[in-house]
Every structure is written in C-alpha cells, then in structure tokens.
C-alpha cells in the first residue's frame, strides 16, 4: 500500500489561475455545513474521497473525519489511520474550516495540505468555499509543487443524478420538436 507523507515540504509556487473544477456531492456538502453549525468557533478538517476525472477535474462523494485537536486558528489531525479509499472512492484531498475568516490558502495550508493531497478546500461559516489543486513538477532537477485554483460546484446527490439518467433514457426527443 502506498503511504502518503504528512508534511512533505517541496518548494511551492501558487497562481490565482482557475484550472479545473471540483464537484461536491450535496450530501457531503450538507455534512460540512452541519459541522460548521456545530463547531462555529474552531477549525476542523475532513478528508475527502471521490474521483479524479482529469488532471484538474475532481468529484467529492465521501468523507472521513480523523481524530483531531483544534483551536480557533489551528487544526492538528491525527492522520495515521486515515483510509486510502472509502466506499470505492480514492482519497482526493481535504476540507478545512477557516471559521469566520476569508477562504484562502494560508502559508500553513500550502505547507501541509497542498503538499500532501491533490486538492485542498477551504470553507467558512458563511458557506464560502475555495478550491485548490496541487501538482508536483520537476524543473531542471528541482521538485516544485504548483498550486492553482479550482471552481467549486455543489451537485445533487448521485442517487438523484442516476435516477435522472435512467429517466432520461425513457424520454425520446422528436426531431423538429422544438418550435
Ligand atoms: Zn487554512
């Protein structure tokens, strides 16, 4: 089993360019919102599972909350027993709360989160969320971690999407039907 290092620290280069999309299943989003409601004064971190559909295209469909010690401005998760996969989905990244602060990737976020996971989502109590994607590159023998932005979309639960897809196969669109 491949083990991810926690706190690996290559040189990080970030850009404000938006390079892709992360689609969060609404039921996972609802859990995140509930955690903000219950823990409005402290940070918290949730590990996210989903699919990587392209170099910067992700879904988030499951979650895991590791044991963690938190304050208003810090979170120290115990990542030792975090599963690599969850319900058939791969670990894609993390979500953490910035409580009432704006949503941005802080120096600590860049050092620990984007260097350990493909995606990092930062959210606050107002429901604002920012997405970041990181990719390792080697330039002239030096390792760099490139960090760019992702658009974040909250999608309907996959059950609804599947039902809609099944239903759509029963609907035939007649040629010339649109007037
Ligand atoms: Zn942060």
Descriptive account of the structure:
The relative contact order is 0.23. Strand 8 and strand 9 (about 130-140) form a beta hairpin. The protein has one domain (about 10-170): Cytidine Deaminase, domain 2 (3-Layer(aba) Sandwich), CATH 3.40.140.10. It is of the alpha/beta class. About 20% of the residues lie in helices and about 45% in strands. It contains 3 helices and 10 strands, in the order βαββββββαβββα. The protein binds zinc ion. Zinc ion (ZN) binds next to loops. Zinc ion binds near residues 98, 106 and 109.
List the helices and strands and how they pair.
Layout (H helix, E strand, L loop, with lengths): L10 E15 H13 L6 E10 L2 E8 L3 E4 L2 E4 L7 E2 L2 E9 L9 H7 L5 E5 L5 E11 L2 E14 L2 H12 L10
Parallel strand pairs: 1-3, 1-10, 7-8
Antiparallel strand pairs: 2-3, 2-7, 4-5, 6-7, 8-9, 9-10
This protein binds zinc ion (ZN).
The site of zinc ion has 5 residues, from loops.
CATH superfamily: Cytidine Deaminase, domain 2
Kindly state the mean pLDDT as a whole number?
Answer: 88
CATH architecture: 3-Layer(aba) Sandwich
Bound molecule types: zinc ion
Could you give the count of β-strands? 10
């Amino acid at each position: 089993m491949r083990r991810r290092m926690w706190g690996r620290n290559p040189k990080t280069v970030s850009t404000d360019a938006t390079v892709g999309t992360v689609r969060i299943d609404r039921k996972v989003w609802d859990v995140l919102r509930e955690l903000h409601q219950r823990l409005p004064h402290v940070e918290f971190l949730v590990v996210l599972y989903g699919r990587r559909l392209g170099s910067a295209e992700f879904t988030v469909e499951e979650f895991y909350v590791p044991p963690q010690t938190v304050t208003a401005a810090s979170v120290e998760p115990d990542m030792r027993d975090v599963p690599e996969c969850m319900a058939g989905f791969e670990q894609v990244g993390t979500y953490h709360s910035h409580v009432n602060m704006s949503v941005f990737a802080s120096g600590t976020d860049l050092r620990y989160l984007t260097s350990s996971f493909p995606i990092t989502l930062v959210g606050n109590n107002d429901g604002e969320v920012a997405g970041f994607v990181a990719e390792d590159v080697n330039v002239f023998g030096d390792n760099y971690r490139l960090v760019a932005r992702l658009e974040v979309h909250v999608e309907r639960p996959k059950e609804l999407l599947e039902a809609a897809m099944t239903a759509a196969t029963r609907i035939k669109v007649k040629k010339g039907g649109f007037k």
